[in-house]
Amino acid sequence: MCPPPTAVIFDLDGTLVQTREASWQVFEPIGRRHGLGIDTPEAFYELFAGNFFASLRDACPPHLVAIVVSEFMDALTDHYSPVMVPGLIDVVKAMVPHSRLAVLSSNTTPVVRRVLRNNNLEYCFSHVFGGDVEPDKTVGIARFLADAASGSGRLCRAYYDEPPVSSSNDERPEADPREVVLVTDTVGDVEAAVTAGIRAVGVAWGMHTEEQLLAAGAEFVAIWPQELLAHLYGRAEHDCECATSCAVPAADTTNTPTAKRQGEAAARRNERRRTSAERLRMAVHATMTGTAATPTTVHKLHRESRTTTGFAPTTLRNSTDPALTAAITRTMR
Question: Do 225 and 126 belong to one domain?
């Protein structure tokens, strides 16, 4: 079963903010000045297929690597100011009471600060790992999991949650990788999450397609921001064995052909999503109307749930608090 996450790590560019045009405008004069041959937006976007800065270094002649990276980082800090993806401000605030939130980005910490502050979200995130602090996202995830204070979050206020005075570091539970989710728009980030042993959820509005993200190992790809709430908190998928097994490794480690294995995994995910979405719609309808399902429906759902998952069906009213239910309900109208 995939439990609701206790921590959600967001990528910034292409996930929280719309990045394509804004980042290209920053990079274009730098690439032209140094003759890097990255002359079109499409060629620039290809750098995001893996770790962006690793791809940028590979695209530069050795004697220009340090200069180009330094100029680009400075330009991002001074001029990069992308807009938030519509709907995500509401989604982030709906997550805050239920999960610790973090940002893990290849961008600079000043840029992350500016974006979050411009949208009044700076105190909703308890941890920020910029590319100037930790350029390797796999290492950044490991640092988050190993941080003795990773269990401390924020409720969109300046101060952090404080553990009881009697608690010691030895008594605080370590972050459970099964309950940590990375939300991202790129294949490289999904692979970093799989490598680090945490869950990965993709978004379809960024750099890579739904099919690419699923093939890389994402357990789900949201088409709309509000779908993140429905997937992560609406109802647990009782047939999903989480941690690394909840994602499909990018590398083929069996004798089954990669394409066939990825296709079968995607089909299973699609079926789980279809079933969960139908149950979620019924639960939301019951929540909004205050009506109970018919005995026939209850019996049918109970039998199917016992047969396929071993758990009796529950409603949103029982599995979430009113604020989160309201946020999910707005998505289904």
Answer: yes
Does residue 77 carry a pLDDT above 80? Answer: yes
**CATH code, domain carrying 206:** 3.40.50.1000
Reduced to 3 states (helix: H, G, I; strand: E, B; else coil), residue 61 is coil
pLDDT of residue 279 exceeding 70? no
Terminal CA-to-CA distance of the chain, rounded, Å? 28
- Using the structure block, give the residue that is written with the tokens 């991002």: 76
User: Residue 34 has which token pair?
Assistant: 């140094």
How many residues are recorded in the chain? Answer: 333
Which residues form the domain of 138? 7-13+86-246
pTM of the model: 0.66
Task: Decide: 200 and 247 in contact? Cβ < 8 Å.
Answer: yes
Lowest mean pLDDT among 95-109, 164-178, 306-320: 306-320
Q: Are residues 199 and 131 in the same domain?
A: yes
Please count the structural domains in the chain.
Answer: 3
Task: Name the 3-class secondary structure at 157.
Answer: coil
Number of Cβ atoms within 10 Å of the Cβ of 49: 14
Based on the domain organization, do 173 and 199 belong to the same domain?
yes
Contact 221, 202 (CB under 8 A): yes
Between strands 127-129 and 220-222, the pairing is unpaired
Question: Rounded distance, CA 294 to CA 303, Å?
Answer: 14
**Is the dihedral angle over the CA atoms 188, 189, 190, 196 positive or is it negative?**
positive
Domain co-membership, 90 together with 236: yes
